[in-house]
Amino acid sequence: RKEVEQDPGPFNVPEGATVAFNCTYSNSASQSFFWYRQDCRKEPKLLMSVYSSGNEDGRFTAQLNRASQYISLLIRDSKLSDSATYLCFANAGGTSYGKLTFGQGTILTVHP
Amino acid sequence: GAVVSQHPSWVICKSGTSVKIECRSLDFQATTMFWYRQFPKQSLMLMATSNEGSKATYEQGVEKDKFLINHASLTLSTLTVTSAHPEDSSFYICSARFGAGNSPLHFGNGTRLTVT
Predict the structure, then answer these.
(1) What is the per-residue pLDDT for B69?
(2) Mutate to test the interface with A, among B3, B43, B106 (most CBs of A within 10 A)
(3) CA distances in angstroms from A112 to A77, A82, B116, listed in the order given
């Protein structure tokens, strides 16, 4: 089983829609979680951190469920510019940081 | 904010040649950097962890003699693809962590390698 799993999609939604992605992680020692966005042929860029209490940044809301070991990303009022691949990242900390802990990415396409 | 710079952005080389990719942390010191590879429509795959002043740690299946990593200073790590072949054509991305604890990774802009 992969350490971090995501539904690869693709998700095709109209502008203005609300869309949610989930990401499950298998390592219960994971301590920190992040969502990244990757545009075609570009490097991943940090979208937001995910905190235990949940956090919001504009149209984006991230949540963590430690009991069920998943994190989620909710995008409200989708824009065309939100079209990208969204990667979740779970860090087990210490020397394992960065080690094979990216999800495979969820492709989002927002259409007019 | 923290910036990770990677050079070159793209390179085309002939089969059998070696290619060096540089990864720099511009405004912070990075004792650890990570090298990833990404094939089209696939996820990021960690190749190795680069440690300043010591040998890199390679992931299973990654040939350390083919992908040479040098982390000679706190702001520079290099990845050399030796004797490149067409199957090495890929998107290579480095990353580093700015800050301690569980801070996020920041990525370089990536290097698109095409071996002909």
Answers:
(1) 94
(2) B43
(3) 12, 12, 39
